[in-house]
Amino acid sequence: MHMDEPTKTTLPPFDRHAFEGMIRKSAILKQWFQPTLEGAENIPAEGGALLVSNHGNFGVDLLVLVTLFHERLGRVLRSLGDRVVFATPIFRDLARTMGVIEGEPEATVRLLQDDELVLVYPGGAKEALSAPEDVYRLQWESNRGFIRTALRAQKPIIPVAGIGNEELYVQVVSKDRVRDSRVGRLISQFLGDKYVTPLYMGLGILPFPTELHYLIGEPIHLPYGPEAADDDEIVAQLHQQVTEATQQLIYQGLDQREPVAANR
Fold first, then answer.
1. Chain segment 207-259, per-residue pLDDT in tens
2. What are the residue ranges spanned by the domains of the chain?
3. Alpha-carbon torsion 51, 55, 60, 65, what sign?
4. How far apart are CA 43 and CA 49, in angstroms?
5. Number of CB atoms found within 10 A of residue 186's CB
6. Which CATH class is domain 16-169+208-255?
7. Mean per-residue pLDDT for 120-138?
8. Of 74, 76, 77, 249, which is least packed with CB atoms within 10 Å of its CB?
9. pTM for the predicted model, two decimal places
10. Kindly report the CA angle at 81 between 51 and 186, in degrees rounded to 5?
């Protein structure tokens, strides 16, 4: 297959009616988090784009961001989910209603080629479950797949900074301590070390009602053809550019609000 030919990957069905019903039912989230969106003009009215963002605690805020895009921009924001999400029927059904697909590169390329907006968290579980001293610090060093995906789909990358989404819970027991426990060793053995979860405190199981603010940066158009996805030097250069742009956007968002306990 030539790099510029559409991929034939089959995507799971997306039920627009069920999605909009879920959006209506999520109105309580706006009262809880008081979310705001800045830079909406940087999202194209049509056409595909790959959005990259810092990962909040457990991805709890994803539905908030999806709702903002639907209400403010009239667009569906698709996203990628970890395989663990799709291993449990109740979470799998919820994810599919939200338009989430399992994070396979071919499926992501297909969505982008179909002119969808697709959100990815390059930091993955490592960033979502990171130590308090790493709050708001991107941990994308080992993940360059999103760059290759954007190149293969020939779509721009749009940085998104989530402010408040890394403060929804307070970590009370570190990942290292959990890993040393019997349960932690079992999780590491059967699922992998990245799924060893620190212990967190919220309002019971609910997150703290932290105000959420999202900043959308200017699109980064990739000046290379799809063949560049196989060029490690180009991929590394673009990875650095996108990571730095997103990190600076996060700092900008932090500077715009009251000081928080964030290490830079």
1. 999 999 999 999 999 999 999 999 999 999 999 999 999 999 999 999 998 65
2. 16-169+208-255, 171-206
3. negative
4. 8
5. 11
6. alpha beta
7. 91
8. 74
9. 0.90
10. 135
